[in-house]
Amino acid sequence: MAGQVVTGSRSGLRSALPLLLPAYLWLTVAIFLPLSAMVFFSFMTELPLSGRAWSFTLDNYATFFSQGLYWTLLLASLRLGLEVTLWCVVIGYPAAYVLAKVFRGRSREAIFLLVILPFWSNGLVRIFSWAMVLREGGILDTALNAVLPFKINIDLMYSYPAVIIGLVHSYVPYMVLTCYLTLQAIDDSLIEAGRSLGASRLQMLKRVIIPLSMPGLVAGAALIFVPVVGSFMEPRILGGRTGTFYGTVIEDQFVAVFNWPLGAALSFILLAVVLVILALASPVLKRVA
Amino acid sequence: MATTRILEWCGRLYIWLLLAFLYLPIIIMALMSFNVSPFYQLPFEWTTEWYASLWLNDQLISATWNSIEIAIITTVISTVLGSAASLALYRHEFRGKKALQALLFPPIAIPWLITGTAMLIFFFGVGIGRGLFAILLGHVALALPYVIVVVSARLQTFAPELEEAARSLGANQWQVTSRVTLPWIMPGVIAGGLFAFAVSFDQFVVSYFLSTPGQTTLPVEIYAAIRKGFTPEINAVSTIIIVVSMALMLLTARSFKFGGEK
């Protein structure tokens, strides 16, 4: 890490404070206090606004645990996260490998940039763009019917696969990025050495390359799984009626049903799940960073 | 070896397929914004009427200005505060520094749905309420960790002896910072600023929960329009957004190599 410099009297928290305080104060007001407030509100019967009476309660959590619906939806979201992550591994890992080991020099740099560029562009717009491709009479439908001799109807829009496709499209650059960073660090001479000792390609992959790039895989998986479990906009746009997940139910509590305390409780449960996952992955995440 | 050749060839082909998967939907969406048919019907007939009609959509235009203003203010505030914090973290050793650095992780890692709803509850509770100011508060907080991480990465390449040398030559603290340190970390600061702009300009989830009907940003407005039904106008404005944000990232990539190498 930076900052191994200790210059006598100029070290210490007191002299660092004037520069540190504004940034951390802002983070406290806009992130840490809100997260604490959310926990607090999740134990209330009503929001303490406009003079309505409120008291502490465990009802919001009782609702989650007693009504099968929320459990089912949380499980559905976790399953969605798992499936999207797996697809991202299957699609992203080979791409990262080719990028790190086949491409060289400028073309590698350019293609790497091309792969991660969409990731930094507007996520909402990219999800919307799939609607153009997937709907009936959309590009996929038209293109396939133009090529195939028989008539088929492709209407993937508003279905579970559509949600998966959109999310994989959104997050696969993450997997390419993290895997590329670890794969690139593997010395080529190591691979040559293994090959010259008679290891087959498959053996090299299983015994050397995958174990050495494991940190990248785990980091990518954590960074994809967590936001996908909390996604709501993607299932709403591409999933339609089938797109009800844990995230969309939380959204509903805040923008449609206006049961904020329940929304806070549902959010906090999701936060707890997310923190457990990040904690499990954090030793590996630290090694990558 | 022949097999190696074939495998490498397959690898290259695979990368191009991946790029097609990543870019085709975006390209199709952009093309459809130039198509006459309001129902996206083929054959393709060129028009710019959807872009022209954007100009008449006051709601969209005011949301666009909000987005740009908030992104610029977010960039300025988070770049200044973030760079200052990075400098402090670089120069000083103190207890709890590791913890402070670890605190930058949650804002990036926690899903925006959770952060956004938490902000909504808290801002409502303390009387800030919803609206553009609340959105700005949130955006700066989301952008700060990115700025600090990027500027800190640049600071790692800085030799502290340079500050020492300037100081021993009689420069005061302000001169050392403005003439020696800042010019060196400038590429990092610029990259951090561009990241901040992108985080704010593309931000949807947090803005969505903090906006009110009159005070929204462009992505929120687009989401509302999408849920009413698809129109080529959405394609047009989406195309503009994606071109802007991709151009921004290309700029960022030029001033800051990903992976930290110089």
TrEMBL record, chain A:
**Which residue ranges traverse the bilayer?**
23-44, 110-133, 158-183, 204-226, 262-285
UniProt keyword list: Cell membrane, Membrane, Transmembrane, Transmembrane helix, Transport
Q: Per its UniProt record, what Gene3D superfamilies does this chain match?
A: MetI-like
Localization per Swiss-Prot or TrEMBL: Cell membrane
Q: Does the keyword Transport apply?
A: yes
Where does this protein chiefly localize? Answer: membrane
The membrane topology noted for this protein in its Swiss-Prot or TrEMBL record is: Multi-pass membrane protein
Quote the InterPro entries the UniProt record gives.
Answer: MetI-like, MetI-like_sf
Coiled-coil spans in chain: none
Chain ranges of the ABC transmembrane type-1 domain: 74-281
Family statement drawn from the similarity comment of this UniProt entry: Belongs to the binding-protein-dependent transport system permease family. CysTW subfamily.
Q: What is this protein called?
A: Spermidine Putrescine ABC transporter permease component potB (TC_3.A.1.11.1)
**Which taxonomic lineage does the organism of this UniProt entry have?**
Bacteria, Pseudomonadati, Pseudomonadota, Alphaproteobacteria, Hyphomicrobiales
TrEMBL record, chain B:
Matching PROSITE patterns, A to Z?
Answer: ABC_TM1
Kindly list the places in or outside the cell where this protein is found, as annotated in its UniProt entry.
Answer: Cell membrane
- Report the superkingdom from the record: Bacteria
Xref: CDD domains: TM_PBP2
Entry keyword annotation includes Endoplasmic reticulum: no
Q: How does it sit in the membrane?
A: Multi-pass membrane protein
Q: What is its main location?
A: membrane
List residues traversing the bilayer: 12-34, 70-90, 102-126, 132-153, 184-210, 234-253
Task: Write the record's keywords in alphabetical order, separated by commas.
Answer: Cell membrane, Membrane, Transmembrane, Transmembrane helix, Transport
Q: Which Gene3D superfamilies match?
A: MetI-like
Domain ABC transmembrane type-1: residue ranges:
64-252
Q: Which SUPFAM superfamilies match?
A: MetI-like (SSF161098)
| One Pfam assignment | BPD_transp_1
InterPro entries with a match to the protein in the record? Bact_Polyamine_Transport, MetI-like, MetI-like_sf
In the record, the note on similarity to other proteins reads:
Belongs to the binding-protein-dependent transport system permease family. CysTW subfamily.
PANTHER family for the chain: PUTRESCINE TRANSPORT SYSTEM PERMEASE PROTEIN POTI (PTHR43848)
Q: What's this protein's name?
A: Spermidine Putrescine ABC transporter permease component potC (TC_3.A.1.11.1)
